[in-house]
Amino acid sequence: MALNFFAFLYISLHFHLSYSSPSRLLIGVHPLDEKYYEAEVIECRDGSKWFSRDRLNDDFCDCGDGTDEPGTSACPTGRFYCKNVGSTPRYLFSSRVNDKICGLKLLVFLKMALVIVLVAFLIFPRRKNRRRN
């Protein structure tokens, strides 16, 4: 019974953490900068160009400063905002984007904790209370 519960919990946790993310278009954007990306036409921060919202995070560097690619590694000078759940949020160089390290820490920690609890239940099974007459 306990094994089934922990297996269900493990699978649910895996899918919840893997597939529940904010809007795909705003990956790599600091929460205070989200309003900057709400318009249909967005200006590069260096003022060199304008681009439409559908070109945001399209893996092609339109702006020299990386404004249009906050969530990809397409622009060499771009910076990616990592929420770093469970740790300190920070900016990363775009070369480190999609290396699976930023969001992986919490997931690995939670899965390891669940595995440890599951192993503990298997190694040390609860004994039924026996009534003595």
Automatic annotation (TrEMBL):
The chain crosses the membrane at residues 106-124. Keywords: Membrane, Signal, Transmembrane, Transmembrane helix. The keyword Membrane applies. Residues 20-105 form the Glucosidase II beta subunit N-terminal domain. The keyword Transport does not apply. One of its GO terms (cellular component) is glucosidase II complex. It holds the Pfam family PRKCSH-like. GO terms for biological process: N-glycan processing. Residues 1-20 form the signal peptide. This is Glucosidase 2 subunit beta.
